[in-house]
Amino acid sequence: xxxxxxxxxxxxxxxxxxxxxxxxxxxxxxxxxxxxxxxxxxxxxxxxxxxxxxxxxxxxxxxxxxxxxxxxxxxxxxxxxxxxxxxxxxxxxxxxxxxxxxxxxxxxxxxxxxxxxxxxxxxxxxxxxxxxxxxxxxxxxxxxxxxxxxxxxxxxxxxxxxxxxxxxxxxxxxxxxxxxxxxxxxxxxxxxxxxxxxxxxxxxxxxxxxxxxxxxxxxxxxxxxxxxxxxxxxxxxxxxxxxxxxxxxxxxxxxxxxxxxxxxxxxxxxxxxxxxxxxxxxxxxxxxxxxxxxxxxxxxxxxxxxxxxxxxxxxxxxxxxx
Length: 322
Hints:
By secondary structure, the chain is α/β, with parallel strands linked by helices. It has 12 helices and 11 strands.
Protein backbone atom coordinates (compact mmCIF):
# COMPACT_ATOMS: atom_id res chain seq x y z
CA UNK A 1 0.00 0.00 0.00
CA UNK A 2 1.24 3.44 -0.99
CA UNK A 3 0.27 6.63 0.82
CA UNK A 4 -0.27 10.08 -0.64
CA UNK A 5 -0.65 13.51 0.93
CA UNK A 6 -3.02 16.06 -0.61
CA UNK A 7 -2.04 19.73 -0.98
CA UNK A 8 -5.33 21.66 -1.39
CA UNK A 9 -4.92 25.05 -3.04
CA UNK A 10 -8.40 25.93 -1.78
CA UNK A 11 -7.43 25.83 1.89
CA UNK A 12 -3.79 27.01 1.99
CA UNK A 13 -1.57 29.54 0.25
CA UNK A 14 0.80 28.13 -2.40
CA UNK A 15 3.89 28.88 -0.31
CA UNK A 16 2.38 27.03 2.64
CA UNK A 17 1.64 24.06 0.40
CA UNK A 18 5.30 23.92 -0.61
CA UNK A 19 6.15 23.44 3.05
CA UNK A 20 3.50 20.71 3.26
CA UNK A 21 4.98 18.94 0.22
CA UNK A 22 8.43 18.96 1.80
CA UNK A 23 6.91 17.70 5.06
CA UNK A 24 5.18 14.84 3.23
CA UNK A 25 8.42 13.75 1.59
CA UNK A 26 10.41 14.07 4.80
CA UNK A 27 8.08 11.85 6.84
CA UNK A 28 7.87 9.21 4.11
CA UNK A 29 4.74 9.73 2.01
CA UNK A 30 5.02 8.18 -1.46
CA UNK A 31 3.14 10.90 -3.30
CA UNK A 32 1.81 14.43 -3.10
CA UNK A 33 -1.46 15.27 -4.83
CA UNK A 34 -2.76 18.75 -5.52
CA UNK A 35 -6.05 20.30 -6.54
CA UNK A 36 -6.51 22.13 -9.85
CA UNK A 37 -9.38 24.62 -9.52
CA UNK A 38 -10.18 28.16 -10.58
CA UNK A 39 -12.59 28.77 -7.69
CA UNK A 40 -12.40 27.05 -4.27
CA UNK A 41 -15.03 25.05 -2.36
CA UNK A 42 -15.38 27.82 0.27
CA UNK A 43 -15.19 31.61 0.43
CA UNK A 44 -14.13 32.75 3.89
CA UNK A 45 -10.38 32.54 4.37
CA UNK A 46 -9.96 30.51 1.17
CA UNK A 47 -7.13 30.46 -1.35
CA UNK A 48 -6.99 29.12 -4.90
CA UNK A 49 -3.51 29.16 -6.38
CA UNK A 50 -2.80 27.73 -9.81
CA UNK A 51 -1.71 24.10 -9.74
CA UNK A 52 0.68 24.00 -12.71
CA UNK A 53 3.23 26.68 -11.79
CA UNK A 54 3.10 25.38 -8.23
CA UNK A 55 3.91 21.85 -9.43
CA UNK A 56 7.09 22.98 -11.15
CA UNK A 57 8.30 24.67 -7.99
CA UNK A 58 7.25 21.77 -5.75
CA UNK A 59 9.11 19.24 -7.89
CA UNK A 60 12.25 21.37 -7.62
CA UNK A 61 11.84 21.74 -3.86
CA UNK A 62 11.67 17.96 -3.33
CA UNK A 63 13.88 15.05 -4.34
CA UNK A 64 11.93 11.87 -4.98
CA UNK A 65 8.28 12.06 -3.89
CA UNK A 66 5.82 11.64 -6.78
CA UNK A 67 3.24 14.32 -7.65
CA UNK A 68 -0.23 14.11 -9.17
CA UNK A 69 -3.17 16.38 -9.87
CA UNK A 70 -6.38 15.48 -8.17
CA UNK A 71 -8.03 16.40 -10.46
CA UNK A 72 -7.62 18.21 -13.79
CA UNK A 73 -10.81 18.46 -15.88
CA UNK A 74 -10.29 18.82 -19.68
CA UNK A 75 -13.75 20.30 -20.17
CA UNK A 76 -13.33 23.85 -21.54
CA UNK A 77 -10.59 25.95 -19.91
CA UNK A 78 -7.84 23.41 -20.75
CA UNK A 79 -7.17 21.87 -24.15
CA UNK A 80 -6.02 18.29 -23.45
CA UNK A 81 -3.11 18.78 -25.84
CA UNK A 82 -1.73 21.46 -23.53
CA UNK A 83 -2.27 19.23 -20.49
CA UNK A 84 -0.34 16.47 -22.25
CA UNK A 85 2.46 18.90 -23.10
CA UNK A 86 2.71 20.13 -19.49
CA UNK A 87 2.69 16.55 -18.19
CA UNK A 88 5.37 15.48 -20.65
CA UNK A 89 7.54 18.48 -19.78
CA UNK A 90 7.36 17.88 -16.03
CA UNK A 91 8.30 14.23 -16.54
CA UNK A 92 11.11 15.10 -18.93
CA UNK A 93 12.55 17.32 -16.20
CA UNK A 94 11.68 15.00 -13.30
CA UNK A 95 11.44 11.46 -14.75
CA UNK A 96 8.73 9.29 -13.28
CA UNK A 97 7.60 11.84 -10.72
CA UNK A 98 4.36 13.25 -12.12
CA UNK A 99 1.00 11.87 -13.18
CA UNK A 100 -2.00 13.85 -14.39
CA UNK A 101 -5.55 12.90 -13.45
CA UNK A 102 -8.39 13.71 -15.86
CA UNK A 103 -12.02 13.95 -14.72
CA UNK A 104 -15.34 15.50 -15.67
CA UNK A 105 -14.89 18.46 -13.33
CA UNK A 106 -17.08 21.01 -11.60
CA UNK A 107 -18.82 24.23 -12.64
CA UNK A 108 -16.43 26.33 -10.52
CA UNK A 109 -13.66 25.69 -13.06
CA UNK A 110 -15.59 26.73 -16.16
CA UNK A 111 -18.44 29.18 -15.50
CA UNK A 112 -16.34 31.94 -13.85
CA UNK A 113 -14.25 32.07 -17.04
CA UNK A 114 -17.29 32.41 -19.28
CA UNK A 115 -17.51 28.80 -20.43
CA UNK A 116 -20.67 26.73 -20.45
CA UNK A 117 -21.21 24.03 -17.86
CA UNK A 118 -22.37 21.06 -19.93
CA UNK A 119 -24.31 18.12 -18.56
CA UNK A 120 -22.55 14.90 -17.65
CA UNK A 121 -22.89 13.02 -20.99
CA UNK A 122 -21.24 15.93 -22.79
CA UNK A 123 -18.46 16.17 -20.19
CA UNK A 124 -17.85 12.44 -20.45
CA UNK A 125 -17.52 12.73 -24.23
CA UNK A 126 -14.95 15.50 -23.79
CA UNK A 127 -13.10 13.33 -21.25
CA UNK A 128 -12.89 10.52 -23.82
CA UNK A 129 -11.51 12.99 -26.38
CA UNK A 130 -8.90 14.07 -23.85
CA UNK A 131 -7.78 10.52 -23.11
CA UNK A 132 -7.44 9.73 -26.81
CA UNK A 133 -5.48 12.92 -27.46
CA UNK A 134 -3.17 12.15 -24.55
CA UNK A 135 -2.44 8.69 -25.94
CA UNK A 136 -1.60 10.11 -29.37
CA UNK A 137 0.56 13.03 -28.30
CA UNK A 138 2.54 11.42 -25.50
CA UNK A 139 4.27 9.18 -28.04
CA UNK A 140 6.07 12.18 -29.53
CA UNK A 141 4.72 11.39 -33.01
CA UNK A 142 2.67 13.65 -35.27
CA UNK A 143 -1.03 13.15 -34.59
CA UNK A 144 -4.38 14.31 -35.90
CA UNK A 145 -7.67 13.67 -34.17
CA UNK A 146 -11.19 14.70 -35.14
CA UNK A 147 -12.99 14.37 -31.84
CA UNK A 148 -16.43 14.99 -30.43
CA UNK A 149 -15.27 18.31 -28.95
CA UNK A 150 -11.44 18.41 -28.88
CA UNK A 151 -9.29 17.96 -31.97
CA UNK A 152 -5.68 17.87 -33.19
CA UNK A 153 -4.31 18.90 -36.59
CA UNK A 154 -0.86 17.45 -37.26
CA UNK A 155 0.25 18.14 -33.70
CA UNK A 156 3.45 16.85 -32.15
CA UNK A 157 5.17 17.18 -28.78
CA UNK A 158 8.86 17.74 -29.34
CA UNK A 159 9.77 17.29 -25.66
CA UNK A 160 8.67 13.96 -24.22
CA UNK A 161 10.09 11.79 -21.45
CA UNK A 162 11.66 8.41 -22.13
CA UNK A 163 8.75 6.59 -20.46
CA UNK A 164 5.03 7.27 -20.80
CA UNK A 165 3.79 9.45 -17.93
CA UNK A 166 0.85 7.74 -16.23
CA UNK A 167 -2.62 9.02 -17.04
CA UNK A 168 -5.19 8.66 -14.26
CA UNK A 169 -8.93 9.10 -14.57
CA UNK A 170 -11.03 10.01 -11.54
CA UNK A 171 -14.68 9.21 -11.05
CA UNK A 172 -17.36 8.10 -8.63
CA UNK A 173 -19.83 6.56 -11.07
CA UNK A 174 -19.91 3.62 -13.44
CA UNK A 175 -19.69 5.59 -16.68
CA UNK A 176 -16.46 7.36 -15.75
CA UNK A 177 -15.06 4.15 -14.28
CA UNK A 178 -15.65 2.53 -17.67
CA UNK A 179 -13.65 5.32 -19.34
CA UNK A 180 -10.83 4.69 -16.86
CA UNK A 181 -10.88 1.01 -17.75
CA UNK A 182 -10.51 1.82 -21.43
CA UNK A 183 -7.80 4.45 -21.28
CA UNK A 184 -6.23 5.06 -17.88
CA UNK A 185 -3.11 3.78 -16.17
CA UNK A 186 -4.75 4.54 -12.82
CA UNK A 187 -8.19 5.15 -11.33
CA UNK A 188 -8.95 7.62 -8.52
CA UNK A 189 -12.22 7.68 -6.62
CA UNK A 190 -13.97 9.14 -3.59
CA UNK A 191 -16.58 6.37 -3.56
CA UNK A 192 -17.20 4.24 -0.49
CA UNK A 193 -16.01 0.65 -0.43
CA UNK A 194 -19.44 -0.85 -1.15
CA UNK A 195 -19.97 1.32 -4.23
CA UNK A 196 -16.42 0.69 -5.36
CA UNK A 197 -16.66 -3.10 -5.10
CA UNK A 198 -20.23 -3.55 -6.38
CA UNK A 199 -20.43 -0.88 -9.10
CA UNK A 200 -17.11 0.73 -10.01
CA UNK A 201 -14.89 -2.34 -10.21
CA UNK A 202 -17.24 -4.17 -12.63
CA UNK A 203 -17.42 -1.03 -14.79
CA UNK A 204 -13.65 -0.59 -14.72
CA UNK A 205 -13.17 -4.23 -15.70
CA UNK A 206 -15.78 -3.99 -18.47
CA UNK A 207 -14.06 -0.96 -19.97
CA UNK A 208 -10.69 -2.70 -19.83
CA UNK A 209 -12.11 -5.84 -21.43
CA UNK A 210 -13.64 -3.86 -24.29
CA UNK A 211 -10.26 -2.23 -24.91
CA UNK A 212 -8.35 -5.51 -24.67
CA UNK A 213 -6.55 -4.40 -21.51
CA UNK A 214 -5.72 -6.17 -18.25
CA UNK A 215 -7.69 -4.40 -15.48
CA UNK A 216 -5.21 -5.64 -12.86
CA UNK A 217 -2.63 -3.31 -14.41
CA UNK A 218 -4.77 -0.26 -13.58
CA UNK A 219 -3.66 1.22 -10.26
CA UNK A 220 -6.49 2.01 -7.82
CA UNK A 221 -6.36 5.07 -5.52
CA UNK A 222 -8.85 6.25 -2.92
CA UNK A 223 -8.95 9.85 -1.78
CA UNK A 224 -9.67 9.64 1.95
CA UNK A 225 -10.79 12.84 3.66
CA UNK A 226 -9.57 13.13 7.25
CA UNK A 227 -9.50 15.67 10.04
CA UNK A 228 -7.57 14.49 13.09
CA UNK A 229 -6.84 16.25 16.35
CA UNK A 230 -6.58 15.16 19.97
CA UNK A 231 -9.47 17.58 20.60
CA UNK A 232 -12.50 16.41 18.62
CA UNK A 233 -14.08 19.88 18.51
CA UNK A 234 -10.93 21.24 16.87
CA UNK A 235 -11.03 18.49 14.24
CA UNK A 236 -14.67 19.34 13.44
CA UNK A 237 -14.00 23.07 13.24
CA UNK A 238 -11.09 22.59 10.86
CA UNK A 239 -13.04 20.24 8.59
CA UNK A 240 -16.03 22.59 8.23
CA UNK A 241 -14.13 24.29 5.39
CA UNK A 242 -15.05 21.29 3.23
CA UNK A 243 -18.73 21.00 4.20
CA UNK A 244 -19.64 22.63 0.90
CA UNK A 245 -18.47 19.47 -0.88
CA UNK A 246 -21.25 17.65 0.95
CA UNK A 247 -23.89 20.30 0.34
CA UNK A 248 -23.17 20.77 -3.37
CA UNK A 249 -22.97 17.83 -5.74
CA UNK A 250 -20.13 17.75 -8.28
CA UNK A 251 -22.71 17.89 -11.09
CA UNK A 252 -24.47 20.99 -9.73
CA UNK A 253 -24.10 24.22 -11.69
CA UNK A 254 -22.88 26.14 -8.64
CA UNK A 255 -19.65 28.06 -9.15
CA UNK A 256 -19.77 30.90 -6.60
CA UNK A 257 -17.81 29.97 -3.44
CA UNK A 258 -20.06 32.28 -1.40
CA UNK A 259 -23.07 30.18 -2.32
CA UNK A 260 -21.20 26.92 -1.73
CA UNK A 261 -20.21 28.16 1.73
CA UNK A 262 -23.77 29.27 2.49
CA UNK A 263 -25.10 25.80 1.67
CA UNK A 264 -22.32 24.15 3.66
CA UNK A 265 -22.97 26.25 6.76
CA UNK A 266 -26.69 25.41 6.54
CA UNK A 267 -26.00 21.71 7.08
CA UNK A 268 -26.36 20.14 10.50
CA UNK A 269 -22.90 19.41 11.88
CA UNK A 270 -23.58 15.74 12.58
CA UNK A 271 -24.92 15.23 9.06
CA UNK A 272 -21.93 16.61 7.17
CA UNK A 273 -19.27 15.13 9.46
CA UNK A 274 -20.81 11.66 9.06
CA UNK A 275 -20.80 12.00 5.27
CA UNK A 276 -17.60 13.97 4.67
CA UNK A 277 -14.97 11.56 5.95
CA UNK A 278 -13.08 10.59 9.10
CA UNK A 279 -13.34 13.34 11.71
CA UNK A 280 -11.78 11.99 14.88
CA UNK A 281 -9.66 12.42 17.99
CA UNK A 282 -8.55 8.77 17.80
CA UNK A 283 -6.09 7.84 15.02
CA UNK A 284 -7.20 4.22 15.31
CA UNK A 285 -10.31 5.32 13.38
CA UNK A 286 -8.05 6.29 10.49
CA UNK A 287 -6.21 2.98 10.66
CA UNK A 288 -9.47 1.03 10.50
CA UNK A 289 -10.64 2.87 7.37
CA UNK A 290 -7.25 2.38 5.71
CA UNK A 291 -7.42 -1.37 6.43
CA UNK A 292 -10.93 -1.50 4.96
CA UNK A 293 -9.76 0.05 1.70
CA UNK A 294 -6.63 -2.07 1.51
CA UNK A 295 -8.82 -5.18 1.87
CA UNK A 296 -11.01 -3.86 -0.96
CA UNK A 297 -8.01 -3.89 -3.27
CA UNK A 298 -6.87 -0.27 -3.36
CA UNK A 299 -3.18 0.25 -4.12
CA UNK A 300 -2.89 3.75 -2.70
CA UNK A 301 -4.60 5.95 -0.13
CA UNK A 302 -4.37 9.67 -0.79
CA UNK A 303 -5.17 11.67 2.35
CA UNK A 304 -6.92 15.00 2.06
CA UNK A 305 -6.22 16.14 5.60
CA UNK A 306 -8.11 19.13 6.97
CA UNK A 307 -6.51 18.59 10.36
CA UNK A 308 -5.75 21.68 12.47
CA UNK A 309 -2.05 20.75 12.29
CA UNK A 310 -0.88 19.14 9.06
CA UNK A 311 2.46 18.33 10.70
CA UNK A 312 0.73 16.46 13.52
CA UNK A 313 -1.37 14.45 11.07
CA UNK A 314 1.56 13.68 8.75
CA UNK A 315 3.83 12.57 11.58
CA UNK A 316 1.09 10.44 13.15
CA UNK A 317 0.38 8.80 9.78
CA UNK A 318 4.06 8.02 9.34
CA UNK A 319 4.23 6.54 12.82
CA UNK A 320 1.07 4.42 12.60
CA UNK A 321 0.73 3.51 8.91
CA UNK A 322 4.03 3.40 7.06
